Structures are given as structure tokens and as C-alpha cells.
Amino acid sequence: MRFIHTADWHLGRYFHGLHLTDEQRELLLGQFLPLVRDEKADVVVIAGDIYDRGIPPVEAVALFDEILTKLIEQKVRVLYIAGNHDSARRIHFGNRLMRSAGVFVRGELEDPLSPVVLEDRFGPVYFQLYPYAEPAAIRAAFGREEQLDFDSATQLLVDTGREQIPAGARSVAVAHAFLAGGQSSESERPLSVGGSGNVSPAMFHGFSYTALGHLHNPQAAGGEMIRYSGSLMKYSFDEAQQHKGVNIVELDGQGQVSRRFQELIPRHDVRRIRGLFADILSDEARYPVSDDFIEVDLKDTRPILDAFNQLKTRYPNLMHILRTDRMAEQVEWQQHGEAMLKQSETELFGQYYEAMKGDTMTDEQQAILSECVSEVMKEAREQG
Questions:
Q1: Are 15 and 23 in contact (CB under 8 A)?
Q2: Where are the alpha helices (DSSP H) in the chain?
Q3: DSSP state, 216?
Q4: Nearest to 183 by CA among 143, 215, 147, 150
Q5: Nearest to 17 by CA among 254, 253, 278, 317
Q6: How do 43-46 and 318-322 pair as beta strands?
Q7: Most buried pick, 92, 258, 275, 313, via CB within 10 A?
Q8: In the chain, where are the structural domains located?
Q9: Distance CA 62, CA 204 (A)
Q10: How far apart are CA 284 and CA 230, in angstroms?
Q11: Are 176 and 84 in contact (CB under 8 A)?
């Protein structure tokens, strides 16, 4: 069986005020669907975060409907779950109706967690769908009264689903979670405070393959066949160096898995550029004109009048300007100022005298200065 593992489409997302639905549509229709066709994939697995928010814009819903329709027309079966950005109930809607069309959905937890069983020429493959769920929801779904953290709750969820799969059968877990040791990105919404939402990768050992969603950087997590496909596109500038795409997975009759990553390249890349303002405007060889989504980190420490609009003449899709060097300089000056505030008037004047004269004050001069400062402070108190 050959299936394509993807996740974190975040349909309807805004990127620095820009609506990305047209970019997403172009990528899905122009590259993703042809890839599914060319690879002759039997199944498409989407591991959560279909949408960017619980109530997605109408255009995002229409786009997902269009993609599902075209996959069904290609006779491709589709499995997807809710992620932490999705509304579990809205994703779950119509799940029984869609089964007849080969679309299998789990947005909300069910008891029992019946797997989706798909057949190939070697026999059945068991797909267990684990939608994102908070520990309280997992406790309620399975009638548990004890307190559970994310790790123990997810362990309960995974074990409950595994009980529905015959021992030794070929199996695929589909989950949306933050596995411990995974590399996160700025565009991901934290599942909990302080890393308490992390779960152990070991709970997925025993599945032939685990298709994960949530982390936007494609990566393995605790095992070569426990993998994040990564997000559909780059959704933050700290993802600029990442490669986005899908996992193409082949499952043989013995449950052995081979996998390769296929990159998807959008019309507009997300890039960071660093340099001096004058160089960026004048050096076309190093800084060519581009309509990619750009963040510029200026090395200049001096103020620059209307830098954003000037840079937009070269980068029409300029999103943001950083001044990390200037910020570092400002922090240094702030720390210097705070240190000066802790010094006495005589110490400050002594530093000024040394800077102007190139020599330190004598003991006699320091005594005269202290007497003068005391008189000034006394007069100020009497007048105040």
C-alpha cells in the first residue's frame, strides 16, 4: 500500500496581514493533487490542523471541499483528524456519511476507537486515528476519574486504540501531538504551558508507521518511522530554511516501510535577508529584486528614514524589518544607563572630569566637589 502523509495545512491562515488561501490553493491544485495522481497513491493521510482556526473563513472551507472532491474523483481514500487549531466537532461532522465515499474522519473521541481497515493485495492495514484532545476530554471519553497529564492521557488514548488492532497486523497511527525531543517553530500554537504538553515517542512503538501532525518542521521523532510531515507551507520566518512537502510511504506485505520526502515549492518563498540598508538598495547581484515574502534584518545602527517603503521598491512583499544590531546596541546603552543611575553625583562628575581632562581628580578636588554637592543638595531640600 502506498499512501501520502501530510499535515498542518492551516487553510485560511493570515501571514503578516496577508490572506494565504490563494497561495495554498495554487500549491494544492498545482502540485499536491498531481503528485497524488503521479504516485498512484492509494490513500492520503492528513494528520490534523486542516484549518488555521476553529471557525475558518468560507474560502478555506470551500478549498478543502474542492480538494476532497478531486481526491474522491481520483478514487483515492482520505483519512484525516482534528488538530489543536481545528474545531473537533466541526471536523467530525458528516463522518459517517463520508465513509461511503472513501473519506474517513475523526474529529472527536469515540469509545470504542475502531480503526479504519483498508485492504491491499496483501490483506488488511489498520489505520488508528487519534485526533488532538485535551487530557480532560480523554478522561471523559473513557470514563476515567484520576487526574491525567498530557503524557499519561495520550498513553491511555494510544493504548485504547491499539487494543482494537490484532496483534502482528500491519498498522498505521495518525496523531496530532508534540512528541518530546521534537523541533518546534514560531508558527505553532503551544499545547500547554512550559512544555507539559510533550508526550513520549515510545508510546507509538509497535505501529508500522506513525503519521504525525503539529510540528511544522519535517522530522523523525523517537524512531525513523515515527514522523512529522511538516506543514504545507512556511508559516513563520524562523521556518525560512526548512523544506516543506509530504512523506510518500510504501508499506509492504510484511509491514516493512520505506519512505521518501517530496518537496512542494510555493509560488512565493519565505525568506530572511540581512545586510546594510545602502547595500540592499544598490547591490543587485547580492540582493536581487524578489516578490517572495521577505523579512529584512538591517545591520545599520543609525536611524533610517522611511526604511520600510524604500525597501518595498525592491521587495513588494516585504513583511517585516528587524534591527537586531541596533536593538543590541540599545540594550547595551540601557544597561549602561542603569549602571550610571546607581552611581553618586560625585562619582559621575569624577568620570566626566577624567573624560574631559584625561586625568583623575586629586583628593583635594574630590573634597571640594563633595562639599559643593552637599551644599546644592541641602539647598534643593530646603526649597522643595
A1: no
A2: 21-27, 33-38, 58-73, 88-92, 95-98, 135-141, 150-162, 277-282, 307-312, 324-341, 345-357, 363-383
A3: S
A4: 215
A5: 317
A6: unpaired
A7: 92
A8: 2-263, 270-325, 344-384
A9: 34
A10: 33
A11: yes
Q: For the chain, how many residues are written?
A: 384
Q: Return the half-sphere exposure (C-beta side, CA atoms, 13 A cut-off) of residue 219.
A: 16
Amino acid at 180: A
The pLDDT tens digits of the residues spanning 141-193 come to 998 989 999 999 999 999 999 999 999 999 999 999 999 888 888 777 666 54
Number of H helices, E strands in the chain: 12, 19
Q: What is the average per-residue pLDDT within 220-233? A: 96
Query: Per-residue DSSP letters for 305-349?
Result: TTHHHHHHTT-TTEEEEE-HHHHHHHHHHHHHHHHHHTS-HHHHH
Q: Is the pTM of this model over 0.85?
A: no
Question: The dihedral of CA 315, 316, 317, 321: what is its sign?
Answer: positive
